[in-house]
Design a protein that fits this description.
- It contains 17 helices and no strands.
- The longest helix has 34 residues.
- With 404 residues, the protein is mainly alpha-helical.
- The protein is globular.
Length: 404
């Protein structure tokens, strides 16, 4: 009973710390229009306010995976130090920077630091949960999702035209997340720190089950961050086309809701995956979200009665499966190097997002915002095929207590 009580306390602690730290991710992206006007940024430079974070995360995660940093430094120290460093970089953008190039460099460094937050948080939860791991990591990804959405809420309630308020707010919240992480204690399933082993990466990338779970994740990531990055712009264009009053505030609030509701999706999908299997839940989620990529063109310019429920359903399912790919890798990979396996998974996944984020404005220039998300459907199609293939393999018995 004491162990059960301890694991739920740790789930809440790490979940809140993750939520707070991840407010850094879209802190500059949420105020991209204001920063673009302030610094005379081009569309490409504005996109790099997000892409620099993605690229920084990839670099940080690859370094961490290659050097097995996530398995050689105590998780609470790695998480907390990373959150503090990311908060410092964001505060510098708000207080010192006066141009796009410096901001993009600091956004890159923010991404590097977040590679010590997200995968580390998943490893921390895996240390407390063997049964119910899908739910635990689902709650964690739900916290990440709400944290990622938070800057849009900060902008809606007082940050429109005031980008420094949003940036300083996100930096302060993230620093609190770092303080909370220091209160974490390691769980009964937490492997001890492992020695540096360059052969670990080769074993990770040659494991058949891990490769299929990662392929599912990569298809999911092709869609996820492109939608999260561009949904505020799509919503603003759609609201203006539909003649909705006060479209800027409405679009910011809707963008927050679209991303934040994914936190509920990740939590409920985690519970469902523990009952019915990870491959099934991820496949259903990708089918729904992939269909939404196409239906976004149909509902464009519609009334709020149509648009609001559509984007909320899309936001619910688009990230519902995210935690389950990570839970699958934590169950399939070698125990001593789970942290490195998760870090490598996220590194490649976020590298893929750079391509899809850059693709959307190119498509938009040709077909408009109405159909700009249509090419993203390829990711869920590939991801679903990979997870259904994994479901048919003997390795699927290692997932969700044998449920696949």
């Amino acid at each position: 009973m004491a162990a059960d009580s301890g694991r739920w306390r740790m789930l809440v602690l790490v979940g809140v710390a993750e939520l707070f730290a991840m407010t850094l991710w879209f802190s500059a992206s949420a105020v991209g229009p204001e920063l673009a006007a302030l610094w005379s940024l081009s569309d490409a430079e504005t996109a790099w306010l997000t892409n620099a974070v993605q690229l920084g995360f990839v670099v940080g995660a690859l370094l961490s995976a290659t050097l097995t940093i996530a398995d050689t430094i105590r998780p609470r120290y790695l998480f907390a130090g990373s959150a503090f460093a990311g908060a410092g970089a964001t505060a510098l953008i708000a207080g010192v920077v006066d141009g796009g190039f410096s901001a993009i460099v600091l956004r890159f460094l923010t991404g590097v630091t977040l590679a010590g937050v997200y995968p580390t948080g998943m490893k921390m939860m895996a240390g407390w949960f063997r049964e119910g791991r899908g739910l635990a990591i689902g709650v964690l990804v739900g916290a990440l999702t709400v944290g990622s959405a938070a800057p849009h809420l900060l902008r809606a309630v007082g940050g429109i035209g005031r980008p420094r308020v949003v940036l300083f707010g996100a930096a302060g919240i993230a620093a609190v997340g770092g303080v909370l992480a220091l209160g974490y204690r390691e769980g009964p399933y937490q492997p001890g720190t492992a020695p540096f082993d360059p052969g670990a990466i080769r074993r990770i990338v040659s494991d058949r089950g891990v490769v299929l779970a990662n392929t599912g994740y990569f298809g999911h990531m092709w869609e996820l961050y492109a939608v999260w990055t561009w949904i505020p712009v799509y919503l603003l264009a759609s609201l203006e086309a539909g003649g909705v009053a006060n479209p800027e505030v409405t679009a910011a609030l809707l963008a927050f809701g679209t991303i934040a509701i994914g936190g509920v999706g990740a939590w409920l999908a985690g519970s469902a995956a523990d009952r019915w299997g990870r491959s099934l839940v991820t496949s259903v989620s990708m089918v729904v979200s992939g269909t939404a990529c196409l239906l976004a063109g149909v509902v464009y310019g519609s009334s709020l009665l149509v648009l609001v429920p559509f984007v909320l359903v899309w936001g619910f399912f688009i990230v519902a499966d995210s935690a389950q790919f990570s839970a699958a890798v934590s169950e399939l990979a070698e125990d001593s190097y789970v942290g490195s396996a998760l870090t490598l998974q996220t590194a490649i996944g976020f590298l893929i997002t750079i391509g899809s984020i850059q693709l959307i404005p190119l498509v938009q220039n040709v077909v408009g915002w109405q159909w700009a998300f249509a090419p993203l459907v390829v990711g869920p199609l590939v991801g679903t095929a990979a997870m259904l293939a994994l479901r048919r393999l003997p390795e699927s018995a290692q997932l969700a207590g044998g449920k696949g």
